[in-house]
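Hey,
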Amino acid sequence: MTETLFIGGGGEDYALPQELLLKYANRHGLIAGATGTGKTVTLQIMAESFSAVSVPVFLADVKGDLSGLAISGTEDFKLHDAFMKRAGIIGFDDYSYDAFPVTFWDLYGEQGHPIRTTVAEMGPLLLARLLELSEAQEGVLNIAFRVADEDGLPLLDLKDLQAMLVWLGENRETISLRYGNISTASVGAIQRQLLVLENQGATQFFGEPALELSDIMRTDTDGRGRINILAANKLMAAPRLYATSLLWLLSELFEELPEVGDPDKPKLVFFFDEAHLLFDDAPKALVEKVEQVARLIRSKGVGVYFVTQNPADVPEDILGQLGNRVQHALRAFTPKDQKGLKQAAETYRTNPRFSTEDAIKEVGVGEAVTSFLEAKGAPSIVERTLIRPPSSQLGPITTAERQAAIDTSPIAGKYESVKDRESAYEVLRGRAEKAAAEAEEAERLEEEAAEAERELKQARRYDGTQVGRSTSKRSTRSDSMGDKLTKMVVKELTGTTGRRIVRGILGGLFKGR
């Protein structure tokens, strides 16, 4: 079995192989460098290498270029001669063109199989980050999740959460006594943020069928690991949704996969491109969550590789856990850039043959400063490395080629149709409809009772003999009422209005007889 992945050639003449030990590939890594320095190609060749040794890969395709992994490179490609020359320089003797098994995914279901999760699986911490909630609003969101869980109300999609928040607002006085204050302002703010999320297209991300982790950990019929590519060119327009969805997936892997200790090779390698989006303005609780996942998920057999422009984009506590590093060129035009460059250089084990700081500034496109974990997990000394050329197509594939890959995927048709089973929205709507029907029935019965009482009073008022009571007391009251009515009629005969009223009263009375 292959024990290493060939990344490129190092040393003064690039004759020193730079290899990643498979048994340390789950110790995580970093691919960094300024725009246009070759990070995407490095990600591509690493994905190829892992796939070739039966390790599934998950990565986000921010620009669309990585879709080329599904198609073999060809000799008529304009860089063919340059690729062959580079392969010769670095001693990549078995270099050849090849395609790799790819599964395309898309949160919007347009450029790949839909990828979904439920609101409950996302959890209040990540959802609060996604919605940019304040501390008070996050507290209300936590109450909504807690009450939904206790009342057996499944939170599957956004309408479930919206319905739950409406119910929480309507019953806030009762709920607040147990869980703390629930203000209508906080509920309204969360609802508005959910509306923004809907406008970004997140409705399709929340729901069922939810992603099964086994579907991103597949190997192909020939034993190669499948490369899962998440279409992210549209998703990048909603950067928080992008970062949170990837972090959710990482958290699910952490929660669901069993402990495997130190395997001979990873069970899955996860590339987190544009990693700075994960940490920009992130609350402390979220950063701590990422740090915990990064520290512990390697024991589940998962390697996480952060891809970003500058190592400073990654918090220091997490950066210290990234043992395998490929550093492409960094620009240092400002004092801040120069400080970041110096800090990046200081994280490597020095090589007496050159200045690491100078090398990071000087390496060309497709060249990098690398350091990989050696025996016993110690980092190797830093080397200037010429990255090997890719075997798959460099650049995006056509729409027809992508669709063909989607149609022939082993999970074709599994996630395309949305399943909308009974959940919080339907349960709460059913309760509301039942309560409304009961209230309507109660109102009808109350009106009938009131009408019956009015009829009884009217009968007693104008014809006491018909109510079945003939006591002397009742007769006295009736006589008294009769005397008063007679006096009123006589008094009002001289007025037109009075005559009209009396006609109405007497006419109705006589008519009733």
